[in-house]
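Email to the structure team, subject: Phage portal protein model.

Hi all, the expression group asked for a predicted structure before they design truncation constructs. Nothing fancy, just the tokens so they can compare against earlier work. One-line instruction: predict Phage portal protein, return tokens.
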Amino acid sequence: MRRSVIVNHRGMPFVANKSSYDSAGQGRRASNWYAPRSGPNDALVGSLDTLRNRSRAGYRNNPWIRQGVNSLVSNEIGTGIIPRSRVEDEDFRRSQNALWDRSADEMDADGVLDIYGMQALCSRTRRQAGEVFVRRRMRQDSDGLAVPIQFQILEPEFVPIWLNQTAANGNQIRHGIEIDLRGRRVAYWMYREHPDDSSARVDASELVRVPADSVIHHYLPLRPGQLRGEPVTAQALLKAYTFDSYDDAELVRKQTRAPYTGFIKKEYVGEDDWKFDPMTGEPVNEGDDGVPSINAEPGTFLSGLPGEEPVMFDGDDTGAGYADFMRQQILGMGVGLGVPYEILSGDWSKVNDRLVRAILHEFRRSIEADQDHLMIFQVCRRIWHWWTDAAVMRGRLEARQYALRRHEYLAHEWRPQGWPYLHPTQDVEAKIKAIEHNLASHEGEAAKTGWDLEQIQRDNVEAEKRFRELRREAGLPESSEQSEGL
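Reply from the structure team: attached below.
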């Protein structure tokens, strides 16, 4: 412990302060540690534009970033997170589910995706750019939609992050979001078209105020009070970029070396031999600077002057530990993206069945958290509420005392696509035993697969009914299996 030459009132030297935490120390190891003190928004907004641009560039050009993002999206959404009404009135519940199924193909304001493809687009945009906005668009009855409502997916640039000012009504606009005196979001200030799109048909600088009850802001807040979202690729981008550059340089090195097979060392050489191709004897081409050059093709031998003997590297030698180095770098990128190495790389050679289960269980737990906390709560739930309101108000669904009992008519649940069985026989047997011993329900296990138990039972009954009719038409007797059910 270092003692100061400065003494206190008792004449004793002060003891130099030392942090109780090693990570808070100010020694040489931490001298270059940049850890600024900043609020939840100041820490992000200054770098967000650059992060978005580099994240999108990485998705376009870097195979590891693209594979990581695609894996996260496909596991979070799959073929779609499907809603089912939970209203107690059976007639209303069936009508609501049937109407949703009809509307699912018509909900995209751009007319490109169905509602489940829109879920995937929201997830992909959130992971690439950190956030995405969904705007409610009411339509006319004359538009011919099953329910006159659509939804428009907007990239985060539609809400300018630089917009910080006081609105005419006294509210504060912070990073494009208008907040009232009670801290509630009341509006979003948006461009009419993408501000970075050169084909915009209107003034890109014009902003419009959109009420917050018509907008979904889909993002992951990492700190309390954080207003905008951080791309999920942020921690992996620099490593992915550097690693990809290194790997590309290694590939170019091999490509450059590959055509040269050997070197011909001559005992005697003519004065002008360097002007002729060592393989064909033909004169070599001269460039603009007068320096001869040849096209090196596979199998080329180089010719040198007497006494010249180059040391050539082995083009097939990637260095000791190259494979381990590659694996470690991909593993690091996977940690940054939240994707297991095996899924990111496609290399399952070093894991067995038990390790596969452990890896996938941990990965799926994080995916399920994203499904429940972000996609379902922020996006899917709001869309169901908007859609049900529009269906009732426009007469597509009959709901008595809807204003008073709205919460009852909005009862529903969202069911993600089920995970595939790792070991079908064992997994199904485990489900059956859990149901038999009252540790699970038929409905709950069916929901885990993404299906509706009521619909499954109805389909099975219809299948059994058709089977019986076909046997009767064919003049076949009723089998014992038929009497017990299929």
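The chain has two domains: 39-232+338-417, 237-307+319-329. The mean pLDDT is 86. Ping us if the truncation boundaries need rechecking.
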